Amino acid sequence: MILRDKPGLMQLLFAVRGSVLPRILPRILGLSALSALVLWIDANVMRLPHTNAAPFAVFGIALSLFLGFRNNAAYDRWWEGRRLWGQLVADLRSLSREVDLFVAEPDRRAQILRLALGFLHLHRINLRKEADTSPAIRWAGDDFSESPHAPCAALDALTAAVAIGADDGFARKALAERTASIALAQAGCERIATTPLPYVYSLLVFRTTYLYCLLLPFALIDGAGWLTPIFVGIVAYVFFGLAEVTEELSHPFGETVNSLPLDAICRTVERTLAPKLGQEPPPPLQPVDYYLS
Amino acid sequence: MILRDKPGLMQLLFAVRGSVLPRILPRILGLSALSALVLWIDANVMRLPHTNAAPFAVFGIALSLFLGFRNNAAYDRWWEGRRLWGQLVADLRSLSREVDLFVAEPDRRAQILRLALGFLHLHRINLRKEADTSPAIRWAGDDFSESPHAPCAALDALTAAVAIGADDGFARKALAERTASIALAQAGCERIATTPLPYVYSLLVFRTTYLYCLLLPFALIDGAGWLTPIFVGIVAYVFFGLAEVTEELSHPFGETVNSLPLDAICRTVERTLAPKLGQEPPPPLQPVDYYLS
Amino acid sequence: MILRDKPGLMQLLFAVRGSVLPRILPRILGLSALSALVLWIDANVMRLPHTNAAPFAVFGIALSLFLGFRNNAAYDRWWEGRRLWGQLVADLRSLSREVDLFVAEPDRRAQILRLALGFLHLHRINLRKEADTSPAIRWAGDDFSESPHAPCAALDALTAAVAIGADDGFARKALAERTASIALAQAGCERIATTPLPYVYSLLVFRTTYLYCLLLPFALIDGAGWLTPIFVGIVAYVFFGLAEVTEELSHPFGETVNSLPLDAICRTVERTLAPKLGQEPPPPLQPVDYYLS
Amino acid sequence: MILRDKPGLMQLLFAVRGSVLPRILPRILGLSALSALVLWIDANVMRLPHTNAAPFAVFGIALSLFLGFRNNAAYDRWWEGRRLWGQLVADLRSLSREVDLFVAEPDRRAQILRLALGFLHLHRINLRKEADTSPAIRWAGDDFSESPHAPCAALDALTAAVAIGADDGFARKALAERTASIALAQAGCERIATTPLPYVYSLLVFRTTYLYCLLLPFALIDGAGWLTPIFVGIVAYVFFGLAEVTEELSHPFGETVNSLPLDAICRTVERTLAPKLGQEPPPPLQPVDYYLS
Amino acid sequence: MILRDKPGLMQLLFAVRGSVLPRILPRILGLSALSALVLWIDANVMRLPHTNAAPFAVFGIALSLFLGFRNNAAYDRWWEGRRLWGQLVADLRSLSREVDLFVAEPDRRAQILRLALGFLHLHRINLRKEADTSPAIRWAGDDFSESPHAPCAALDALTAAVAIGADDGFARKALAERTASIALAQAGCERIATTPLPYVYSLLVFRTTYLYCLLLPFALIDGAGWLTPIFVGIVAYVFFGLAEVTEELSHPFGETVNSLPLDAICRTVERTLAPKLGQEPPPPLQPVDYYLS
Description:
The structure is a homopentamer.
Chain A: H1 9-14, H2 21-45, H3 54-102, H4 106-128, H5 134-140, H6 150-165, H7 169-194, H8 199-224, H9 228-249, H10 262-273
Helix pairs in contact in A: 2-8, 2-9, 3-4, 3-7, 3-8, 3-9, 3-10, 4-5, 4-6, 4-10, 6-7, 8-9
Keywords (chains A, B, C, D, E): Cell membrane, Ion transport, Membrane, Transmembrane, Transmembrane helix, Transport
Transmembrane segments (chains A, B, C, D, E): 20-41, 53-73, 199-220, 226-243
Main location (chains A, B, C, D, E): membrane
């Protein structure tokens, strides 16, 4: 995630980090060049058909509709991902309080918290398809890699610790409810990670955007003249820019510059729980070059 | 569900799997041909009335409104269906932990989990109106086909097992809450499956789309000339394409290429629960030709 | 509710059941005739002022905004009504399982379920303002017509049965929670039934739509000529059609062809609970002439 | 709240009750007169600049965006207010059942219900800033006016009654949960009542609407001629009408004709609870001149 | 937060407090001046290319789409922040009732309430990054500044007091649930405070808005003539105005004039809880110059 203030004039002109411009520049230039070619042919080789703005008005509205929908859906996925991780933060903090209330033995309390922190890292690693499980091992003493689903195995181990440490009904009920709440947030994240936006929208959106930009010069020749390539470039920037942003945000657990700062969230939880495990709280994660991982 | 990366240039041009193009191509070509006919008559037989863009601007906005609404509603159904299945995944995992905490006898625990897996398959089979109940029989030993509602009967049997295995109030309360949560997600899926989008919208949308595409040539003759059939074809592609996508997504439990991967979700749950039943976890389901069933 | 497949070409042309066309046809024809009159006066009597498309563009956008908003709000009411009834289905199924777990005496169990089914029918009858309470009497033995609010009285009787049949705290807590969940869904339905969309929107929408269609001919004379009445008719169809659909869907518990199939939902619950009461499950309700009541 | 059927032709022409027209008529006429003045100056004194529709198209879209957003936000507040009161209805009904289950002594039960009804009236009085607390005194015997927050004091008294009447853990837990649910709905209503829509939107919307209507004549002179004042009037009607509706609905607990019928909702609850207090249920509140308070 | 009635004519003309106009005026004037320069060059130096409205229609729709989306997302953040604080208000009130029911010793009750009030102030201070922790010290006797996360430490201390004061399972369960609900609302606020809207949207929106306003003169020269700078100024006002409002509302816990009145909300809670601690309730916070902090 990029953490920066509202962009000033310099950033608006030159900011590249966090921008999608570099990735879509080839397409923008290509389409502008094509439109310049159309102009040149129209002026020097043969007169091409000129259309007026009517068909493009509706076309553009439909395209806006597609992009608007996709953008909303993608942002909702991103924000729901963030909300689920916020739920996990709250759940782990509440778990640490509930073991204080309901589990008598200090060692068992510590074991439960360690397994919870291990789960959190394994969940992050699972979502991001990372390979380094050392943070999980550091807390939980195990990365549960022999299990078919490591985060679930960590929660199973946590439940086993609860079964030993909590011997009355209230304790078991309270901690089972907490674990179920964690499991629900976990399944929500996995749902977002494994179910992309329907592929058919991608096809429809990109095909329509290309068609629009390819046909646009025929409508602009009369109205914009030699400004046509500039307008085509701007329209391509706006539409492809939004399409790219959408693509990124719809995968909130990836490692692009716009994805969620899962490392920092895990660190936040570690800072809250470390004192209860008798450890020095690690420093909060700081953005590097405005980027918080 | 189609699982593919962002479409590249080749896919944009040629991807057919997951695209709605093949299904709507006849309509697109038909409407293009009609508009070509209009042009030919206008040029060679008799001058037809030419309209300007004004009436189409509003018409197009209204049409976008219809399609946008229907698209949002359909996507919400699709995503709610996915969310409900995510809830089921979390509930079954939590159930497996709660039987560990609250049910003393191992055989009874296994019975409850087997019935839960049987329920999950029967629920999937019921939603998709499939006939093969063997996965349910494999886990639960029964397909409850003599009952008026097989998934409910599986949950009833699960409750009966809980009544035997859980003898204190906490255990019964915890497992009754979990079962109620499962039943709520189940009823939510059945709601989506049995209540389609209001039929009146389909009539309104399709009638309006046809009217729009049939009248469009009269507005484009002046502005687009012999490009008219191309524009009519594109507009028809955009509008009918969205209408078709909408139709598919509004039935998320069907077996079209864009419906939800219920088989894969059931497999995910089986993988998590199998070790607790002393079984080798089955391999995760892989997409075949980009399609995950 | 109309249950039909995606409309084919024949249905698009001729479907009347479920369509709003018959009801708005007089208005459409009236407005078309008026616009024809305007044309005739303009051509033969005196030249009327001709306007261009500019004022109508903004007007049309504002109108789309109104209609789009009202349509979303109405559909949300319809879908929330359906969701609440889905909640009731799940609650009654869960209630039937919880009495198995928490109520020892079989007669008391049956009494609770019978009162729950009686409540469901009384709730439906109350929402639809029907007079025939025989289904409620059949299950609950009473229609509670002497009470100021029959469905609430049925739930009160259910609670009284719970007070006798459930003698430990867990049982009372579990069944009180279930009853409260039912009461919440009930109050939600009553909220939708007694609180229509603000009347001021109806005035604003219908007044604006009429103004729009009455002034439209002045903008179309130049652009559409003798096609004007056709365009006015289509625009009237689109706008009044959406306004009518909205009106219907915003009353989801009515008995129009687009309202919710409450009879069928009640039957679904009866089918699930009948075996527990030792009765033959009634057959599921089938649509008659595509209409499910 | 206005309770009327779908407006017929007469109502469309003449309905004033519930309409915002009377309040915005001066502005509409003023702006129309100004535009007539512009026309007169342009024709007789000096030629004013004529603009085409291009700048107004974007301007109008942006204005629609503002108004659409504000309208959605206002309606959401109105509907959330209604939902919270529906929650209170369900909570009070459930409370009346839970005291039957969990509180042994009949006098204590009645006391709790009386305090709950007193709370409901005090909450309504607090939201509407009314002075007459007699309904609260009639039920609860006190209006808690010596307390800094009367509705909270009523709930505190209710809790004190629960502390005496409920002596086992289940009873206290159940009634504490119910009270917390009531308190949450109460705080939700107070949130809506004390936090208006951000003031900056009002400035932006009204300033933009005025600018739009003041500049519109310059764009319409060419296109609409002497119909200009009519169009300006209609556009002003549409935009100011929506702005006024929005203003009203965003204060759902006020006493305008479009605010929520809190008196009627309180009466509904009284009708359900009265029999349990041995009282004749009062008649339901009827609309007076279509208005339900 | 600004608390004012609907703006009257004078306020519309001159209101500055709460308005974003002062902040964006330089940009508006700069862009107007630039467009005047374009006009002057076009008239006196060399004829510049004139474009028609077609490219701007689509451009404007896309821009509206961006701004509309961002505005909705920002308002949702603002309103969710307010909802979470409303939840905190309800939770603290319910906590005060639950300690009455579940904690026997009056000193312990007071300690729990004092820690809760301390938490509330620390949470506010943490969100606003303020330095003055005296209100927290006044209630809780400590500002927990030695802890890595002060609000969490306050809740930990509260849990420790519960562990001493509540000795049966029901009490611990009830108070643990309340604390978890508080922690969830707290984590929700922290989520909003630490996760801004994706930076990439800011770049896209501001870059597109500047491009639009810079190119607009070329489209307006023909249509608006010497009114062009006025139109450019208005369009810049509308678009930059909305962008600024959005920026402010997306940080609901800041100290701008449009951010949430956290001081006043804390005071509301203090007023409700003070009598239970034997203190005189402080007066409600009043807006100063229409501003409620």
